Amino acid sequence: SFSHWTYQVTKEYLIVNDLQGMLVDNKHYILTDPAISSPEGYERFSTTNLALKGIKKFFQTHQCNHICKHLKLIKHAYQKLPDRDFDPLMTKILA
To answer: Is RNA-binding among this UniProt entry's keywords (predicted)?
Structure first.
């Protein structure tokens, strides 16, 4: 959902995915090492910028869930997989 949101909030300028992270002090997360893809393939986002190919691959494998629905994210043309009613991992974390 976060990656999907980044694409929409940047007006399809970029997508942030492949975040690494860890829980610190039992209530905060530190997220690092993002991979940023932009349709233009700008080199400033490093060699992990897979440009339109990376964006297409993300949406081909992305399934919207209750978070996407809550954020009112628009389905991308490459999204073909059915939505999921909930994300078990996020539901467990939020519970």
So the answer is: no
Residue 66 DSSP SS3: helix
Domain hosting 13: range is: 2-94
List the CATH number of the domain containing 57: 3.20.200.10
* Sign of the CA dihedral with 34 first, then 35, 40, and 43 last: positive
pTM attached to this predicted model = 0.80
The letter for the amino acid at 90 is M
Q: What is the mean pLDDT of the chain?
A: 87
Residue 95 banded pLDDT, cuts 50, 70, 90 = very low
Give the chain's domain count.
1
Catalytic site positions: 18
Going from the C-alpha of 20 to that of each of 17, 29, 75, the distances in angstroms are: 9, 10, 25
pLDDT of residue 91 exceeding 60, the answer is no
Q: Are 1 and 73 in contact (CB under 8 A)?
A: yes
